[in-house]
Structures are given as structure tokens and as C-alpha cells.
Specification:
By secondary structure, the protein is mainly beta. It is 10% helix and 53% strand. It is built from one helix and twelve strands; from the N terminus they run H-E-E-E-E-E-E-E-E-E-E-E-E. The strands form two sheets. The chain has a six-stranded antiparallel sheet with strand order 2-1-11-10-9-6, with no helix packed on it. Strand 9 and strand 10 (142-156) form a beta hairpin. The longest helix has 18 residues, at 2-19. It is globular, with a radius of gyration of 29 Å.
């Protein structure tokens, strides 16, 4: 009986081994995991803000010998927008920027706007800002970077006394492989 049981176990093992096979190299099952990268977003006063529309332009001004990167992002409701303006001296007519951090508010002038009846109004004066251009692909015209800035709006009464202060913090901003157009003036 032991021999018969052993023989049955061996036969079953052989049958099971026949059905087990290694993965075939012609297996077309896709096991690649993809991740989505956000094109543009920021935290506005602590709340994640992702715009509906984003556009970016790099403009070369031959007269002023400057390059200006302008990025405009508008929310879904069309009531707020973030505008980034970075100007640097141009040493050549090309569609690139120097990858570095800019914190001088004469060079980097961002702002946060409210939009009412199609009219944009800045929400305060710029109090501090930085933008870091981390990469720029001139061939594909894609730019990546981070930014942050603060604005403050003072409201005065008829006697010139401050009646309210509105501060806006736009933090942890990022643009990832943002397409831009290049223009010459």
C-alpha cells in the first residue's frame, strides 16, 4: 500500500509540474505603473490650488536685451489667477533661461489676482518671493521649477488709517514640464 501511495504521489507531482511553466517572453501583459505629474499648482493661503488653464511665454526683447518668462494660471471659476514674471539680462537670442534660484523682486515679480467681471486686480503688494528654474528643455520648449511669494493689501479709511490688512501666501508652487512659446520683440 505504501508503494502504491508513493507511486500516486509521484504521478500527481509529475502531472502538476507539467502544468507549471515559466513566464513566456511573448507575454504581452502590461505591468508598467505610470504616475501623473501635475503641470502647475500651489498652496494659496494653505489650500491646494490647481488652475484650469496655464500658459507660458518666453519673450526676447532685442532693444532691452532681456528675456522675460511669463506664466499665467487661472482657476476653474475664472475668479483668481497667479502670474509669474521673471526677467533676466539676455546674452544671446535663444529660448532658454539660466537654471537657478531668483529671489530679487526686481527680477522676479509674481502676483495673485482676483478677477471680477473680466477685470484682474492684484491682491496686495509683493512682500517676498522666489522662483527656482530647475530645468529647461530648449528643444521641446518645456520648463520646470518651483516658486513661492507673499502679498499684503492694506485698506485705509478716509482719514488714512489702516482698517484692514489682507495677506496672501502662495507657497509650494510648482510647474512641471510646462510647455512655453518663444517670441522675439
Amino acid at each position: 500500500m505504501k508503494k502504491r501511495s508513493l507511486l500516486i504521489v509521484l504521478l500527481l507531482s509529475a502531472v502538476l509540474l507539467q502544468f507549471c511553466k515559466k513566464s513566456d517572453s511573448t507575454d504581452t501583459t502590461d505591468t508598467t505603473t505610470t504616475t501623473s505629474t501635475v503641470l502647475f499648482n500651489a498652496y494659496v493661503n494653505g489650500t491646494l490650488w490647481t488652475p484650469k488653464t496655464v500658459s507660458a511665454t518666453l519673450t526676447y526683447n532685442a532693444t532691452a536685451k532681456t528675456k522675460t518668462f511669463t506664466c499665467t494660471a487661472t482657476d476653474t471659476a475664472g475668479t483668481h489667477k497667479v502670474v509669474l514674471n521673471l526677467t533676466q539680462a539676455a546674452t544671446a537670442l535663444d529660448s532658454t533661461l539660466i537654471a537657478q534660484t531668483y529671489s530679487d523682486t526686481t527680477t522676479f515679480k509674481p502676483n495673485y489676482y482676483t478677477i471680477t467681471s473680466g477685470v484682474s486686480k492684484p491682491v496686495g503688494s509683493l512682500k517676498g518671493a522666489y522662483v527656482t528654474i530647475s530645468s529647461i528643455d530648449v528643444a521641446k520648449k518645456l520648463i520646470t521649477g518651483t516658486f513661492s511669494f507673499n502679498t499684503t493689501l492694506y485698506t485705509y479709511d478716509g482719514s488714512g488709517n489702516v482698517v484692514s490688512i489682507t495677506s496672501n501666501a502662495v507657497t509650494s508652487g510648482q510647474f512641471n514640464n510646462l510647455p512655453y512659446t518663444f517670441k522675439k520683440q
